[in-house]
Amino acid sequence: MKTKRERAMAATKRRRKHELVAAKRQVADVLTVDDVAARLGIGRNQAYAAIQLGYIPALRFGRRWLIPRAAFDKMLGVSPPVSPPVSPPFTANQTPRKRGARADVVTTTA
Q1: Whole-prediction pTM value?
Q2: Phi, psi (degrees; rounded to nearest 5) at 105
Q3: Nearest to 35 by CA among 74, 81, 66
Q4: pLDDT tens-digit profile, the chain (110 residues)
Q5: β-pair partners for 30
Q6: In the chain, what are the domains?
Q7: How many CB atoms lie within 10 A of CB 76?
Q8: Do residues 37 and 73 touch, judged by C-beta distance below 8 A?
Q9: Who's near 108: CB < 8 A, 6+ residues apart?
């Protein structure tokens, strides 16, 4: 029989594990049916029905349904977060270096 301290430690360990799983799920590229149902404000059974009817794009792995975040956002009309613009490796009047060219020499076009 476990002591009170051992039971408390086991409960803390389980709670930390659930928190870690929830944190990973927040940044995941896929959503679960429960996540989608919560975001749409509907019940889990309604979410499963919408998946079966094709209203919600989903993939089935065994008994588990996963909804790609990008497809779900597209379905809702939400644009994905935009990454900051990346500067091109060369300007408009410069061409990329040729293989074997010196690093300090940049070819320009007139």
Answers
A1: 0.49
A2: -110, 125
A3: 66
A4: 778 888 888 888 888 877 776 666 665 788 999 999 999 999 999 999 999 999 999 999 888 899 999 899 898 887 666 556 655 555 555 555 566 655 555 555 55
A5: 68
A6: 29-78 (3.90.105)
A7: 10
A8: no
A9: 93, 94, 95
